[in-house]
TrEMBL record:
InterPro entries: K_chnl_Slo-like, RCK_N. It comes from Anisakis simplex. It holds the Pfam family Slo-like_RCK. Keywords: Ion channel, Ion transport, Membrane, Potassium, Potassium channel, Potassium transport, Transmembrane, Transmembrane helix, Transport. It is a multi-pass membrane protein. The keyword Membrane applies. Residues 5-77 form the RCK N-terminal domain. Signal peptide: none annotated. The keyword Transmembrane helix applies. It is found in: Membrane. GO terms for cellular component: postsynaptic membrane. It comes from the Eukaryota. GO terms for molecular function: large conductance calcium-activated potassium channel activity. This is Calcium-activated potassium channel slo-1 (inferred by orthology to a C. elegans protein).
């Protein structure tokens, strides 16, 4: 996991992730060397998994919840710069 990463959690759907990545990973942004980590309690469906695979160098997905300290440790929430809840 990139030392510069953000954790996105909440209502994780193909549409919400697609819009977020389109804005966040836009080529006009200066700080594109940031990994995006999505944390959701259910595994992604095939459509969402395909989206993650298209952005595999910048995106990781973890099944879990922000209510579980073990899951927060897995996504290294202690060392993040930004946490987004969508």
């Amino acid at each position: 996991m990139n030392p510069w990463h953000i954790v996105v959690c909440g209502y994780i759907t193909y549409e919400s992730v697609s819009h977020f990545l389109q804005d966040f990973l836009h080529e006009d942004r200066e700080d594109v060397d940031v990994e995006v980590v999505f944390l959701h309690r259910v595994p992604p469906d095939l459509e969402l998994e395909g989206l993650f695979k298209r952005h595999f160098t910048k995106v990781e997905f973890f099944t879990g919840t922000v209510m579980d300290s073990i899951d927060l440790s897995r996504v290294k929430v202690i060392s993040i710069s930004v946490h987004l809840h969508v």
